Amino acid sequence: MIYKRNKLTIDHFDVGSIAKKYKTPIYCYSLKKIKKNIQDLKINFRNINPLICYAVKANSNLGILKEIRKNNLGADVVSGGELTKVLKAGIKPKKIVFSGVGKTSEEIEYAIKRNILLINAESKSEILEIEKIAKRKKKIVNVGIRLNPNTDAKTLSQISTGKKENKFGVNQKIFLHLVKTVKKSKNLNLKCLSVHIGSQILSYKPYQSMLRVVNKIIKKSNYNFEYIDLGGGMGIDYDHNKSKLDLKKYSKNIEKFLKTNNCKIIFEPGRSIMGNSAVLITKVIYIKEGFKKNFIILDAAMNDLMRPALYGAKHKIIPIKKINRNSKKSYEFVGPVCESTDTFATVKNYQKLNEKDYLVICDVGAYGMSLASNYNVRPKPLEILIKGSKIQILSKRQKISDLM
Amino acid sequence: MIYKRNKLTIDHFDVGSIAKKYKTPIYCYSLKKIKKNIQDLKINFRNINPLICYAVKANSNLGILKEIRKNNLGADVVSGGELTKVLKAGIKPKKIVFSGVGKTSEEIEYAIKRNILLINAESKSEILEIEKIAKRKKKIVNVGIRLNPNTDAKTLSQISTGKKENKFGVNQKIFLHLVKTVKKSKNLNLKCLSVHIGSQILSYKPYQSMLRVVNKIIKKSNYNFEYIDLGGGMGIDYDHNKSKLDLKKYSKNIEKFLKTNNCKIIFEPGRSIMGNSAVLITKVIYIKEGFKKNFIILDAAMNDLMRPALYGAKHKIIPIKKINRNSKKSYEFVGPVCESTDTFATVKNYQKLNEKDYLVICDVGAYGMSLASNYNVRPKPLEILIKGSKIQILSKRQKISDLM
Questions:
Q1: CA of A12 vs chain B CAs: smallest distance (Å)
Q2: Distances (CA, A) of A7 to A246, B341, B400
Q3: A338 part of the active site
Q4: ipTM, 2 decimals?
Q5: pTM value?
């Protein structure tokens, strides 16, 4: 994404022309960026040679999943719906792991039937349920157990998952107990220890603590896990100030860990693959005088992009045409939805904007469309993928008639 | 909703039987309750005889809208989608008001074409846009102007809308300026002053302040408004401790207001009509030992009911079968979605629960399904309406195949 003669372009496409042609709001993805992100992971973790299972919850568009498959990644799914979708996208069952605290019997049955790589269980009850179904189906099922390492990921509290108060995984005591239980089972094959401490992590240090905990528990369990699934959570640079997780340092820590543990590493990255691969192109409907600021009312809203309302997340908003005049008043960028939470950001010294101007909301490729809704009976936006010199429609804009 | 021999019933239907028959999660509405709520409004505001325009954003199910129409209410819409839907439900254009800060040209054109009662404009730009379209269409359009009264509704900050920092309405100075502008226009007919200070308001006092501000500005404007649209925001008893807005007191304040202002009152209630009319029936998938508490993992999740994750809202969760034994540990009720925000409530001294037990999450009729999404590729739940001795399917459960 660069400005050429003050006009924003994505992979040589002029964003203004895209906006005019397709109408806004539009989720616009760059395949080049997705591939680069995957390549970055592969290169930085080269010494580990991990199995990378893309976290489908970040973005489950079928067209995106097909690109994920073409790049030889596996998938991390958290529901029967996601499992169905990745299989439809052609991802091999032997590259699929199933996570989540509330897998239903039907979902477990489906996963067993499709012979996926791993069901990562998160509770004793789930282990018993998997065993029951496996027994009934006369199968031996590969399972993992998710450990809650009680590690603070130092991220937003809403997206922290590895602390003892979170619902995810089991504590060390239960973990060790479950290892024994599964070892004894004729229908379960314990293959994996899984762990995941949260999302949007920008320092390798929480991962370091996590690895220490994992290392200890492996020793205590006295069990040789074929896989260690380290989850995802690798943070991206939403602020555009180069605050990105240092993957190299994280890799070094894992390499050290692998010296005493002979196992295959699984990663479940979602955001780090998809996050910065997309922008939400939007148009200024009205500019409105407010108290000590002007409201820039956009045609994109919280139903299109929930992260600001849900997590207080900040996404950079940039104009598609650069000018050299700044507004004297602050701008608050808001959507048209009838909620005070439908607000994206308040910015000082922004360039002067006019009604009908186009803007892009950055880094919306992950947890953007996957969290979108039809609130206020608003159709979901168009999704397009820039693919070299072509534009692929990933999903059509919903029509109002679809919402009746 | 009452217990009969310790079993939860809604309008004589046994909730357990409903759960078994239709499978969970289910949004289950009671028409009796909806009618009662409408009746309550009509009775409490009898002396005012307001035009009640149901706020469609609270719940836009077509079946519900048809019931709203049968009860002779109008509608408050905030998008072209909502407008299309209420017209489809048969609500008369002359009972429809259009609110919202970001009405597009297409939406305004549509509203003008359908001759709705009022377009309540929220900015100078919008007024100009309506005028431009009205002129082009050679029409005279009835408009309102929304005043931001800078009144603190003393509700959750996320759902406060009438403070000067909120995006809604215009301040007094701009309001007076716009009154002049519209008076001069040949294509606009100024009919209404509208105001709305927020949602889930439990005291009549913020309304009292609001009315004082409105009274003052009417005097200053020296204009005879045919309608005063007081919005909605009437709070309901989510806590089940009788903390409900005193409608009678609110009515008294309005009656006083009307003594010096000869106008028709419009209300835009959504939550107070729909909120307590529905429960979300859900099943316990697993019970899982946590740190100082047990997690009750439900088959309903944040994608089905967003309010707890989005606003930190609390909804009572009650069992469909009462027993006399309490759990020693606290329970945290969570959904299966892979997010720490997917949690509903933590409760002490709850009755002892077992896996596969059914529960209901209360008061989900407003801002429940309207905010639902397919996050984690989860199909949206079934919606049913109890209608006397019959059960009507309001919308079918989505299938996974619908989400591909």
A1: 30
A2: 31, 39, 41
A3: yes
A4: 0.96
A5: 0.96
